[in-house]
Write a structure and sequence with these properties.
Elements (H helix, E strand, L loop, with lengths): L19 H7 L2 H4 L3 H17 L5 H19 L12 H13 L12 H37 L4 E6 L2 E7 H26 L1 E2 L15 H7 L4 E2 L3 H6 L2 H27 L7 E2 L18 H24 L13 H25 L1 E2 L1 H10 L4 H10 L4 H17 L9 H7 L5 H5 L3 H6 L9 H16 L5
Parallel strand pairs: 3-4
Antiparallel strand pairs: 1-2, 5-6
Helix pairs in contact: 3-4, 3-6, 3-8, 4-5, 6-7, 6-12, 6-19, 7-10, 7-19, 10-11, 10-12, 11-12, 14-15
Bound molecules: arginine.
The site of arginine has 10 residues, from helix 6.
């Protein structure tokens, strides 16, 4: 008679079955079910290794393989239900394997523990995720570069302290986010190199007395290497913490962009108009058009950062080696994956579809004092020390501001009084276009510099960074 799991998995040392509340509390199958294809992939490699090393026979290996593949098919076509009394995805697979092939299923777990098994599953799962995230980043970078090209002739006030500071090309502004996301891309590739090590073979904590070959399974599964220490292999969660840290940083970048778009789409700024497809209304106020996507792009960073802090807190007091505390890693990691899977495409769609309100920007630029630094620089050119020039222009701004005027409305006498050595034509020449054009360093906002930046970023986008 076939003994179904989990009665055999629960050792006879227990006189009782687990209490229902305890079972529900400890079970992870409610959330680790998504690991099933990776669990099967790892088990198939493990079974092949057992055959290769003469630990199970060829016939047994063939049965294990056929059974595992059948389970994967059933999972794929949705006919496999998780059983909570089988605790987690690993025991569910083993339990189903019994149903498929009988007692030989009990051989699969030879020389393996769920501790190295779950660590392996998470590595395999995240390897797929990394590829998908790289795709999402590339798409978003592409949209930002398209924006930089479309908006190339638009000038916006550049800010420090959220006070208009100096004009910059809007393209230059978009490229700042390109630079941030490119670092995210680099960090992803760097993390992926460390992810590329297999923990399988560590057993519960110490290795196993069977003549296993961890490098064989690592190779079958496409890993570059094997963990160097079995205690570390089963209890390392750095690869997850790094993933969460990566996502928290990316989330912070997207949050800053979200905040900017919320501001810019307000009536007070009015720099952009969100496409109707990426905005929502109010249930009460009929005039409202709310930038919800941008708001949530900002808001999601809360959970991304929270999960990082959560897992660091889980891990910080744990002695070696595996503890059930570590099961808490999964919901955090999965929630972050799901959040980013939703966030990256919607951010791309929103950015792609928004409209820049050039007329508003042109009006705004004429009214601020963002030419002040360049005016001081002109005095310096005429021989005045910079500090003195800074002081004079400051005085001039105070006077103009109190009269509700700007540089364009300076009288010839005022020019003479405050700006010795300059004429009204010098002041008139300080158009935003000229100020932008003058900043020619490779990292600066001049059109030639910015178009070179776009070109280089496009080239980098064409090259894959993942191994
Ligand atoms: N469900 C567990 C987890 O997610 C799998 C490993 C359990 N190992 C154990 N010895 N209880 O971490």
């Amino acid at each position: 008679m076939i003994t179904p799991m989990p009665s055999k998995a629960r050792s006879p040392r227990f006189a009782k079955q687990p209490a229902e509340v305890s079972q529900r509390f400890t079970a992870s199958v409610g959330f680790d079910w998504r690991l099933l294809p990776y669990d099967i992939e790892g088990s198939l490699a493990h079974a092949r290794m057992l055959v290769h090393q003469g630990i199970v026979s060829e016939e047994e290996g063939a049965l294990l393989q056929a059974g595992l593949e059948r389970i994967r098919e059933k999972w794929q076509n949705g006919s496999l239900e998780p059983r909570i009394d089988w605790e987690d995805v690993h025991m569910n697979v083993e339990g189903r394997l019994y149903e498929e092939i009988g007692p030989v299923a009990g051989k699969l777990h030879t020389a393996r523990s769920r501790n190295d098994q779950v660590a392996l599953d998470m590595h395999l799962y995240l390897r797929d995720v990394a590829t998908r995230m790289e795709g999402g980043l590339v798409q978003l970078l592409g949209v930002l570069l398209d924006r930089a090209e479309t908006d190339f002739d638009v000038i916006i006030p550049g800010y420090t302290h959220l006070q208009a500071a100096q004009p910059v090309l809007l393209a230059h502004h978009w490229l700042a986010y390109v630079a941030m996301l490119e670092r995210d891309r680099e960090r992803l590739a760097d993390w992926q190199r460390r992810l590329n090590r297999s923990p399988l073979g560590a057993g519960a904590l110490a290795g196993t007395p069977y003549p296993t070959d961890p490098s064989y399974t690592a190779q079958l599964l496409g890993f570059a290497d094997v963990y160097t220490n079995s205690l570390d292999a089963v209890s390392d969660r750095d690869f997850l913490i790094e993933w969460l840290a990566w996502a928290a940083i990316l989330g912070m970048h997207l949050s800053r962009l979200g905040e900017e778009l919320v501001l810019w789409s307000s009536q007070e700024f009015g720099y952009i108009r969100m496409d109707d497809a990426y905005a929502t209304g109010s249930s009460m106020m009929p005039q409202k058009k709310n930038p919800d996507v941008a708001e949530l792009m900002r808001g999601k960073s809360g959970r991304l950062i929270g999960h990082l802090v959560g897992l660091l807190t889980v891990m910080k007091g744990l002695p070696l080696a595996y503890h059930s505390d570590m099961q808490e890693d999964k919901e955090a990691v999965f929630d972050v994956v799901d959040t980013l899977d939703a966030l990256l495409p919607v951010a791309a769609g929103m950015l792609e579809s928004l409209t820049v309100r050039r007329e508003v920007l042109e009006m705004r630029l004429g009214r601020d004092f963002s030419a002040a630094t360049d005016l001081a620089d002109l005095l310096v050119k005429a021989g005045m020390p910079f500090r003195e020039a800074h002081h004079r222009v400051g005085q001039l701004v105070a006077r103009l501001e109190s009269g509700g005027r700007n540089f364009e409305q300076l009288s010839a006498e005022e020019v003479k009084e405050f700006l010795p050595g300059l004429g009204p034509e010098d002041v008139a020449a300080l158009r935003p276009e000229a100020l932008v054009k003058a900043r020619r360093q490779p990292l600066g906002t001049a059109p030639e510099a910015v178009s070179a930046q776009i070109r280089k970023a496009r080239d980098r986008l064409r090259t894959s960074t993942l191994d």
